[in-house]
Write a structure and sequence with these properties.
CATH topology of the largest domain: Rossmann fold
Largest sheet: 6 strands, mixed
Strand order of the largest sheet: 6-7-8-3-9-10
Structural class: alpha/beta
Low-confidence stretches: none
Shape: globular
Order of helices and strands: EEEHEEHEHHHEHEHEEHH
Number of strands: 10
CATH class of the largest domain: Alpha Beta
Helix content: 40-55%
Mean pLDDT: 95
Bound molecules: adenosine-5'-triphosphate, magnesium ion
């Protein structure tokens, strides 16, 4: 069964049709890269998956559970949207860390709030009935995640004391903290100096090796070819071509994919 099933997602902003019926599925442990020109709708698609935008049409299903169906979207409460978001982790281009908090607190903040709320409402969180005990476990998990992204020595630093590549690795650890089913990246290296992209791409490769399910919007075509199981080329709000990296990047069938890749090769 697919971890994620996306059906007929349509998103308009006023009269502008940005997504015109997007369909795809992602299997457990699969890495899907999304490539395409500026304005083709890649960020909007990720924002729809993370419930930051509400599509006018379509359905989003995770592990067989329909999280969103435009046919009955009016029933989605704020609480339901917050629950839905827990299925997805999102790493932005601009890291978006909280500057006033340490690295570790950036990672533990969201789960700490969730634990507090659950203990108050339901009496327990992950088997903990005591908030401080829950927090200690969340802290330990943050330390494990920081080790996973190679930043164990930075847990007490503040974001401004880190390089861009280190900040992005903290953002990745933060996205992993809620144990999402699907980890989404929106151009994770495009705000970085070229010499810092390697460390972030290396972490993403390690996450793939660890079996994480990921969707990566990227302009790093060679990286996409290397790390992906599936590559999707978006053009004008539709999926113009989808398949293995060998097919879509190595031997594209669609003329628009060929033009897009040719422009990349010229640079
Ligand atoms: N909130 C919004 N209101 C109006 N139009 C929007 C909004 N968000 C996105 N758009 C429009 O939707 C289209 C797709 O934007 P989107 O950011 O999804 O593209 P993209 O593929 O991520 O591009 P890029 O490669 O430059 O990041 C653009 O024409 C953009 O202007
Ligand atoms: Mg974008």
């Amino acid at each position: 069964m697919a971890v994620l099933q996306v059906e007929n997602i349509q998103k308009n902003f006023g009269k502008v049709e940005v997504l015109k019926g997007i369909d795809f599925a992602v299997e457990k442990g699969e890495v899907l890269s999304i490539i395409g020109s500026s304005g083709s709708g890649k960020t909007t698609l990720l924002r729809c998956l993370n419930f930051l935008e509400t599509p006018q049409e379509g359905r989003i299903t995770v592990n067989g559970e329909t999280l969103f169906d435009a046919a009955d979207s009016h029933t989605l409460s704020d609480a339901a949207i917050r629950l839905n978001r827990l299925h997805f982790g999102l790493v932005f281009q601009q890291f978006n860390l909280f500057p006033q908090y340490t690295v570790k607190r950036n990672i533990t903040l969201a789960e700490g709030l969730l634990a507090k709320e659950r203990i108050k409402k339901e009496g327990s969180y992950n088997g903990y009935t005591d908030y401080r005990e829950a927090l200690a476990a969340i802290d330990q998990k943050a330390e494990r995640l920081l080790a996973e992204v190679g930043l164990s020595d930075k847990q007490d630093s503040f974001p401004c004391q880190l390089s861009g590549g280190q900040q992005q690795r903290v953002a990745i650890a933060r996205a992993l903290s809620m144990e999402p089913d699907v980890l989404c990246f929106d151009e994770p290296t495009s705000a970085l100096d070229p010499e810092l992209t390697g460390e972030v791409l290396r972490v993403i490769r390690e996450l793939k090796a660890a079996g994480r399910t990921m969707i990566i919007v990227t302009h790093e075509i060679e990286f996409a070819r290397d790390v992906s199981d599936t590559v999707m080329f978006m053009d004008g709000g539709v999926v113009a071509e989808i398949g293995s990296p060998e097919q879509v990047i190595g031997n594209p069938q669609n003329s628009r994919t060929r033009e897009f890749l040719a422009r990349f090769n010229e640079r």
